[in-house]
Amino acid sequence: MARTRFVQDTGLTVRMTTVMFVLGALFVALVVGLMYFVQSAGLALLIGLIGLGVAWGQWYFSDKVALRGMRAREVSPEEDPELHGIIDRLCAMADMPKPRVAVSDVELANAFATGRSPDRAVVCVTTGIRGLLTPEELEAVLAHELSHVAHRDVLVMTIASSAGIIAGFLARSWQFGGFGLARRGKDAGGAVGFLAVILISLVVYALSFLLTRLLSRYRELCADRSGAYLTQKPAALASALQKITGEIAATPQRDLRAAQPMNAFFIAPAVRGLSLQTLTSTHPSLEQRLDQLARIATELGRPLDGGPLDGGSLGTSGPGL
């Protein structure tokens, strides 16, 4: 990753590399298994290439899809000087290129970063979050999102989440096409091949689902930590998270369901209740995030209760997780 002034996190790099390696190995195993059971290397490779094409499309157009799904539009410095001013200041502090800036015209209070690379990244805030947070709290949220861009974990999450799509595509292709082409009729070998491919696809999907959520929870803690160290204001981010979570809890379920496809990229997931504490959650619990920010505040000499500064400097590594 390109060097910025955001706190480096070796744990995040190791996790991203591991997830990409494991999912890549699983995809190869899936295609090889398909070749074996289909008994047609050309057909298996064709289906695999189509699956990769679908994943490539999701990666390449991820920013456009996300912005369209959130009814967002890019804004220029002339259209929104306040928002651009905050991001300009943070990018200068972090010594990183400025991403595109967008605003989503929805009342749900949230923010996200997306894009296939830092050069194509976009940071988006909703109108709901701008009406909810103070300028200092909004700055803390945007520092969190810029950390995702700097660490390139947005790219890894987009690619990793494609593994489940590929697995599902291969399974359906085998069911509706490959099975008939490879073994016509209801012979025992065809049934075994069909079940084997379905089983392998389900394993790939399940592992992709769990690995992306484990990575997602860690990357959110990393972005909280990096953003807090950059701004030196962990209390502002803690306050923002509490406000956003409280607002989400009061949002109608219909509106939350509409936004849930973006949960892995939001600063706070559009869900409420006990699901935040399960293995399938895309984010750590609010309590865990606040505890980490409290430790950073103590280290920096800036208590979350707004006490006076009594020392501390920018850290080079975060607390153990």
TrEMBL record:
Pfam family, one: Peptidase_M48
Keywords: Cell membrane, Hydrolase, Membrane, Metal-binding, Metalloprotease, Protease, Transmembrane, Transmembrane helix, Zinc
EC number(s) stated in the UniProt entry for this protein: 3.4.24.-
A Gene Ontology biological process term: proteolysis
Keyword Zinc tagged: yes
Record's cofactor remark: Binds 1 zinc ion per subunit.
Gene Ontology CC: plasma membrane
Subcellular localization: Cell membrane
Enzyme class at the top of the EC tree: hydrolase
Active-site residues annotated for this sequence: 145
Compositionally biased residues, Gly residues: 308-321
Main localization category: membrane
Cofactor annotation: Zn(2+)
Positions contributing to Zn(2+) binding: 144, 148, 220
InterPro entries (UniProt xref): HtpX_protease (IPR050083), Pept_M48_protease_HtpX (IPR022919), Peptidase_M48 (IPR001915)
Membrane-related topology note: Multi-pass membrane protein
Region Disordered, residue ranges: 301-321
Transmembrane segment boundaries: 12-37, 43-61, 154-171, 191-211
Record has Transport as a keyword: no
Family: Belongs to the peptidase M48B family.
Protein name, per record: Protease HtpX homolog
Species: Nocardioides pocheonensis
Gene: htpX
